[in-house]
Amino acid sequence: MNNGNGVYCPICRSAFAEFEEHGNPPRANARCSNCRSLERHRLIFLHIIQTDSLFKKTNDPIKLLHFAPERVFYNIFDKVPGITYTACDLFPERYHYYKGNTPIEKVDITNIPFEENSFDLILCNHVLEHIPDDRKAMSELYRVMAKNGDGIFQVPLDYTREETYEDWTITSPEEREKAFGQHDHVRWYGKDYPLRLQNAGFTVFEEDYASKFSTEEFFRYGLMPTELIYHCKKTLP
Ligand SMILES: [Zn+2]
């Protein structure tokens, strides 16, 4: 039984005694029993509803590009009026169980088939650590972002590393799991992650959004203390 009112998922608006354990090693208070959101989803969602203009009424629809669309977000963005929503992945067939009106388009992030300056907001979370030529991917994200557009590009980041760790002699899934934490990751990003984004043209802002919450709220929303949000802006005159 997990009835109760100790935690609240802002995404699906459900309350429980606690979130479920999740991960390896298991993290307490991590996964929503209803929508399956994790800490990182709830953090970004809270940020989006509290500070971004996605859910505010504007005259022009907001053009949103979403890579590797997380289901919890897809289900919302698919239905919000005022968003022109483009969802995509290199392997759209993996999303066959998504039941929305927005198709998942097949897109290679290193060769994005959209025009420059197209999207007001781009979400690309937990994607770049899979991409061998992530610099090309970053420059493509920059190209298709609208002038003064915004992006949130989260990656798993090892804050004990000054420099990103890559080793192109490591190619098997087993070795990659050992070296980079997951069988299909090709690097561990370090503290130089924002620099790599800056080199692609972005103005980067590392926001410790989680620290804005009280200890009680922290538990209530099931957040993680170490996760910064990486905002990437295309600032052009
Ligand atoms: Zn939920």
Note down, in words, how this protein is organized:
The chain is α/β, with parallel strands linked by helices. It has a single domain, classed as 3-Layer(aba) Sandwich (Rossmann fold). The protein is 22% helix and 23% strand. It is built from 6 helices and 11 strands. The strands form 3 sheets. Strands 7-6-5-8-9-11-10 form a 7-stranded mixed β-sheet. Strands 1-2 form a two-stranded antiparallel ribbon. The protein has a two-stranded antiparallel ribbon with strand order 3-4. Strand 8 (119-124), helix 3 and strand 9 (145-152) form a beta-alpha-beta unit. The radius of gyration is 18 Å and the shape is globular. The model has no long low-confidence stretch (mean pLDDT 92).
- CATH 2nd-level architecture: 3-Layer(aba) Sandwich
CATH homologous superfamily? Vaccinia Virus protein VP39
Quaternary: single chain
Helix content: 10-25%
Query: Over all CA atoms, what is the radius of gyration?
Result: 18 Å
CATH class: Alpha Beta
CATH topology: Rossmann fold
Please indicate the percent range of residues in DSSP E strands (runs of 2 or more). 15-25%
**Biggest sheet descriptor:** 7 strands, mixed
What is the 3D shape? globular
Give the secondary structure arrangement, pairings included:
Layout: E1 7-9, E2 14-16, E3 20-22, E4 27-31, H1 39-51, E5 62-67, H2 71-77, E6 83-89, E7 104-106, E8 119-124, H3 134-144, E9 145-152, H4 173-180, H5 193-199, E10 203-207, H6 215-221, E11 229-233
Parallel strand pairs: 5-6, 5-8, 6-7, 8-9
Antiparallel strand pairs: 1-2, 3-4, 9-11, 10-11
The structure holds zinc ion.
Zinc ion is lined by residues 9, 11-12, 14, 32, 34-35, 37.
